[in-house]
Amino acid sequence: MKIKARNFGSWFAVLLAVSQLAIAAESPGQEFKPFAEKHVILQLSDQANHAVVLDTANNLIKNYGGPDMIDIEIVTFGKGVSLLFDESQHQVRIASLVENGVRFYVCQNTLDTMERTHGSRPKINPVAIKVQAGVAHIIDRVDEGYTLIRP
Amino acid sequence: MKIKARNFGSWFAVLLAVSQLAIAAESPGQEFKPFAEKHVILQLSDQANHAVVLDTANNLIKNYGGPDMIDIEIVTFGKGVSLLFDESQHQVRIASLVENGVRFYVCQNTLDTMERTHGSRPKINPVAIKVQAGVAHIIDRVDEGYTLIRP
Amino acid sequence: MKIKARNFGSWFAVLLAVSQLAIAAESPGQEFKPFAEKHVILQLSDQANHAVVLDTANNLIKNYGGPDMIDIEIVTFGKGVSLLFDESQHQVRIASLVENGVRFYVCQNTLDTMERTHGSRPKINPVAIKVQAGVAHIIDRVDEGYTLIRP
Question: What is the pTM of this model?
Fold first, then answer.
């Protein structure tokens, strides 16, 4: 009887370990999109690719069957942050993606550098979520299970 | 005896769970290259990098000991699709890589946009495999265990 | 008694399998930075991004709480190798990052191609670690658990 009890405890430990591995591998971003099977970071760090990144987000939402089925973050740093300037020409498309649950991030390190270089800090679209370092945010998300794409 | 039998069933469940985790982590692309230990996506979405991507594929095949040892997909979208236009200057090198088991993919969303913009659809190299969304194909492959590189 | 012994052996096998999965997932690069929780490859294959990659490495070290907390490799190939030419303007910043444990890699395939094309082989910064194929090095590191970023 004592042996059985000890066995049960050991079993429980192994099952817990196995299930934790499974959970770690399978469920990033559950707080944002509980039904999403895909969790994606689109990296934007390049002046040239602004429209391409927005097109990619739209295509992915269509491809996976709607905004609940895919969890997308667009993380900007370096030359990519100007997508989130308050006067960006892409405001309407950004607003429409935000309504579909896409999250936009802007790198404070980049804005700090811009402020030091140009003497003033660019005004940022209020939908943008501020993170200190865009690259660190990406690394943390990839650790959680997000797939990083730089379109 | 009954306890032993129950134990055996539980053991089997745990071993199955562990081995499934191991399989999920270790064997993408077995249907293409059963002996390959590396499974790689080369992303081409940029006009400038066509030759670089073909060079990279050749170098990888040499580096890992031959075409059976590495499983490579070259996925084109955006400005990268012109590598797979029927009149591409890289036809001979593409054919040689295909003979070595490299698979080339072309994004239909990109071709649809080109057709809307230019009024005609580019003719595509018949070796190209068509996928609706190049980025979605990449995301699915990364989920299967492929490593994504954008050379 | 015999059954218990056999059970112990089986238990040990399962625990070993589970712990190996856990180790494989959690501890790349332990030989370089035993306390680092993040293991990152910064890819440099582009003439334009030299300063950006060095800035990124510095920001990451600051962001994660110092050089012991993050393990960074900067892997250069293609147009990125000139960062590691002996006359590079970035020598001082490179030396300072090396002191903080950042490792710089240079792709021999790229240098071989340059030698064939230009008739001479560029002199390389002695801090650079030589690998035959930069992309293969990246693939192997990602397999070990490193996160690949191309800033």
Answer: 0.83
